[in-house]
Amino acid sequence: MPTYNKLIRDRILEIIEAGGSSYNARTLAPEEHLTEIKKKLYEEVKEFDETTNETDALEEMADVLELLHAALKVYGKSFDELEAVRVEKKEKRGGFDQGLYLIDVEDK
After folding, report:
1. How far apart are CA 97 and CA 18, in angstroms?
2. CB atoms < 10 A from the CB of 107, how many?
3. Are 13 and 27 in contact (CB under 8 A)?
4. What is the mean pLDDT of residues 52-72?
5. Are 6 and 40 in contact (CB under 8 A)?
6. Contact present, 68 and 80 (Cβ < 8 Å)
7. Per-residue DSSP letters for 48-92?
8. Between vectors from CA 67 to CA 1 and to CA 24, what angle results, nearest 5°?
9. Torsions phi, psi for 101 (to 5 deg)
10. Above 90 in pLDDT, residue 1?
11. Which end of the chain is more exposed for a tag (fewer CB within 10 A), N or C?
12. The whole model's pTM is what?
């Protein structure tokens, strides 16, 4: 029996049962949940980094977005609140749309 010890999507247990397998699982406390969301985010960002085509890249970005939604729920915040923070930061400091890459800065 493989051991996973990781956060899974909400319907995975149903899928395991439908396949005729059994499992051991538990529901995480909010603090544990947030810790596991952060771990899973690293995993999904790494998978995004390793993609070689647009389809796979979109799949991994969707996973990252799903994890952000889950983290927002743990914090009791909405996606609209996150989006407002994103927009405010973009207005103050800009986004990442232009692909600018800073080499160095000469001190005065």
Report:
1. 44
2. 4
3. no
4. 98
5. yes
6. no
7. HHT--SHHHHHHHHHHHHHHHHHHHHHHT--HHHHHHHHHHHHHH
8. 25
9. -130, 110
10. no
11. C
12. 0.89
**How much is the pLDDT for 99?**
95
Half-sphere exposure of 75 (CA within 13 A, CB side): 14
**pLDDT single digits (tens) 16-42:** 999 999 999 999 999 999 999 999 999
Contact 12, 24 (CB under 8 A): no
Which of 26, 19, 20 has its CA nearest to residue 4?
Answer: 26
77-100 in b/e burial notation, b at 16+ Cβ within 10 A? eeeeeeeeeeeeeeeeeeeeeeee
pLDDT at 106 over 90: yes
